[in-house]
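Q: what sequence does this backbone want?
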């Protein structure tokens, strides 16, 4: 029996050793970057009364160093997630969901792209990224107790660049192709003829109101949710008004709809340097510069567009599955194995996965075959330089020259400047598909023809663009670019090649904005604010179809009461009507079906779910909408107005245990910029929570929430004299030892 006991002890010892190895292997397996030596950075961080940082440096690089420090002070938690994604280690923090991001990181070769392309960037752009990395390293070294993952720091500029390479394709829907391919689903064209490009495949039905476990297919489709806007609920509004329409003032309104928390939540800042960089706006975690906002002379904002940016090819493999046919010859599939760290409780499991690539691009093999994916901007990284140059542009010509590079793969740009110029550019590095080649670009393409493997993007001049329309205004609400400036100023869709795959869709926000802007005789501040915070629905499109279904619905009892309540609704989510709460619950899923080109939901089923939710949690079908829809952070719990796809956007939410809906995506960072004649630029802004979004102990954790729900904005302290007069914190940061 002694040997049995000894064997048992040995087994226990082996198990303990195995657990210890699994708990510690990943940091040793990962390699940290070797930071550049010998460069000293210094910056001054001045925070205004709202905690928004204004970062000053002698050089642009000094300022970028300060950007990293300031952002880490407010949200090092999220910054670390972004750094882990940029190094293929997110699974060691976020488990299975993080490992899916890591898989995509390897699949699209984000690291390889960064390592190839980063050295080609101009020296001053690389200096910005090296300084930003140094700031992250400095904060991590000074706050080791906050670091989530061993050996995550130090990082170098190329690591930050890899994060850009990972994110950029997902803002035009690469996840909606990769997800179904991984899930063994058919890629099929959209319902209806209104987008003449390769479709976003149908997305899964929206989650039920109650808790439910997600299916494996749904999880596969949502591989990269932390990386970009959720295509199912994407949205943003942008407005520009010329002085002749705005009472003498040029106005730009930025109203991007992003998740309120996480890796693509906006972070507000102002940067200024002795080298002429002076810009106020917002960025995402992991960026040394703002992505939108304004400098002294000009500004811009963005909305997501959905041109045909992606092509999928079905490869013909040989009997070994390791070669594919191209132009009658067999070629080897590039193959490499990667290790994905997957955190499970106290251990991190090493999961091996094969990553494949052909000359087309990344390859996914499933039960239906092998499919290669090629997308606009593949293998490029010039957007890092283009955004930096946009920040420092002083004229419309300088600004547009950067867009004309098509270095930024997608997103609409709405522009305004102090001279009164306003512009809309449908920016997209749309693949230069060859004219006259026999192919159905809306379908899965044959992978054995090299003539279908396009190179580069269409010419900038081929894209929709409007400058100084006669109407005096421009807008976009994720709608077709062919409604942007009003009757007589809009572009003709027939003037653009169908190979561009430009969307022709409208959103409710677009229908409302177009009507309200067209009807206004003057677009002064008050009029434009009323439009931006509009909560109305047009009885058109999916809204009309929903209510036609309700009118035809045969129902009895409580379901009939719910139907009749909705049929009497005033089509305004202002929180004042008795049907606003049930309308809020209903409309999101039908909007989602329209946005994602999914089958239209069953009206009776959705109505029953909404009625059940309200009666279960509120005991009635008609509670005030303000009791249902909430903005929640820490101990602050405030009512909200608006709905999914209203200009005042409360797009999607988490369902809390008390049945309330806690906003998680919709109106986020709002910035209102004005150039009045003879005056320097002024701007106002608001965030849903506050500047210190993950620091509960900070007074800036929740201090903007009341402003946000009350439709109010705070001043942006753009000018140095202004911020110094309101400074709550002023300090110098350096990496000098």
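A:
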């Amino acid at each position: 029996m002694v040997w049995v006991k000894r064997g048992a002890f040995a087994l226990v010892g082996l198990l303990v050793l195995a657990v210890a190895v699994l708990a510690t292997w990943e940091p040793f397996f990962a390699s940290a970057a070797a930071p550049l030596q010998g460069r000293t950075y210094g910056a001054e961080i001045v925070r205004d009364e709202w905690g928004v940082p204004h970062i000053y440096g002698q050089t642009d690089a000094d300022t970028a160093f300060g950007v990293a420090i300031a952002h880490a002070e407010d949200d090092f938690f999220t910054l670390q997630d972004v750094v882990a994604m940029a190094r293929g280690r997110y699974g060691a923090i976020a488990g299975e969901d993080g490992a899916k991001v890591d898989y995509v990181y390897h699949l699209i070769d984000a690291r390889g792209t960064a390592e190839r392309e980063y050295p080609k960037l101009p020296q001053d752009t690389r200096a910005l990224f090296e300084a930003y990395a140094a700031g992250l390293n400095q904060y991590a070294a000074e706050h080791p107790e906050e670091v989530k993952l061993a050996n995550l720091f130090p990082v170098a500029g190329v690591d930050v660049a890899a994060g850009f390479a990972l994110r950029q394709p997902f803002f035009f829907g690469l996840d909606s192709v990769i997800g179904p391919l991984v899930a063994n689903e058919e890629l099929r064209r959209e319902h209806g003829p209104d987008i003449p490009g390769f479709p976003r495949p149908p997305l899964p039905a929206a989650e039920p109101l109650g808790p439910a476990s997600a299916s494996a297919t749904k999880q596969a489709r949502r591989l990269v949710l932390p990386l970009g806007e959720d295509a199912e609920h994407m949205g943003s509004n942008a407005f520009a008004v010329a002085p002749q329409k705005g009472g003498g003032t040029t106005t730009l309104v930025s109203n991007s709809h992003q998740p309120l928390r996480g890796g693509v939540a906006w972070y507000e800042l102002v940067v200024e340097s002795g080298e002429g960089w002076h810009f106020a706006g917002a960025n995402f975690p992991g960026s040394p510069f703002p992505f939108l906002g304004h400098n002294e002379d000009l500004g811009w904002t963005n909305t997501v567009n959905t041109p045909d940016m992606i092509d999928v090819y079905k490869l013909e493999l040989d009997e070994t599955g390791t070669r594919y046919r191209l132009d009658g010859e067999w070629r080897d599939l590039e193959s490499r194995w990667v290790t994905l760290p997957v955190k499970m409780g106290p251990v991190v499991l090493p999961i091996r996965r094969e990553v494949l690539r052909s000359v087309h691009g990344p390859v996914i093999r499933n039960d239906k075959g092998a499919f290669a994916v090629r997308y606009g901007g593949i293998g490029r990284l010039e957007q890092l330089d283009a955004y930096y140059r946009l920040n420092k542009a002083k004229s419309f010509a300088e600004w547009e020259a950067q867009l004309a590079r098509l270095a930024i793969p997608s997103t609409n740009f709405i522009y305004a400047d102090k001279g009164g110029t306003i512009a809309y550019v449908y920016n997209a590095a749309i693949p230069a598909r060859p004219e006259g080649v026999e192919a159905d670009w809306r379908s899965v393409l044959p992978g054995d023809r090299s003539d279908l493997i396009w190179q580069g993007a269409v010419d900038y001049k081929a894209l929709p663009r409007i400058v100084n329309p006669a109407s005096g205004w421009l807008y976009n609400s994720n709608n077709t670019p062919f409604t942007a400036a009003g009757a007589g100023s809009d572009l003709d869709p027939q003037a653009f090649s169908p190979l561009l795959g430009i969307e022709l869709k409208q959103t409710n926000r677009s229908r409302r904005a177009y009507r309200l802007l067209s009807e206004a005789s003057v677009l002064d501040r008050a009029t434009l604010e009323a439009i931006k915070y509009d909560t109305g629905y047009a009885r058109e499109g999916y809204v009309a179809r929903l209510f036609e279904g309700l009118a035809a619905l045969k129902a009895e009892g409580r379901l009939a009461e719910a139907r009749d309540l909705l049929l009497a609704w005033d089509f305004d989510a202002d929180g004042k009507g008795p049907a606003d709460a049930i309308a809020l619950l209903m409309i999101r899923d039908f909007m989602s079906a329209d946005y994602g080109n999914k089958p239209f939901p069953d009206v009776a089923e959705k109505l029953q779910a909404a009625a059940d939710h309200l009666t279960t949690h509120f005991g009635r079908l008609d509670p005030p909408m303000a009791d249902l829809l909430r903005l929640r952070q820490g101990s602050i719990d405030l009512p909200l107005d608006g709905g999914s796809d209203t200009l005042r956007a409360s797009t999607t939410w988490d369902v809390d245990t008390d049945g309330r809906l806690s906003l998680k995506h919709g109106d986020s960072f709002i910035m209102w910029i004005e150039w009045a004649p003879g005056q320097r630029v002024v701007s106002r802004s608001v965030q849903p929570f506050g500047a210190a979004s993950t620091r509960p102990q900070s007074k800036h954790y929740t201090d903007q929430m009341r402003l946000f729900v009350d439709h109010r904005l705070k001043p942006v302290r753009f000018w140095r004299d202004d911020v110094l007069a309101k400074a709550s914190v002023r300090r110098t940061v350096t990496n000098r030892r």
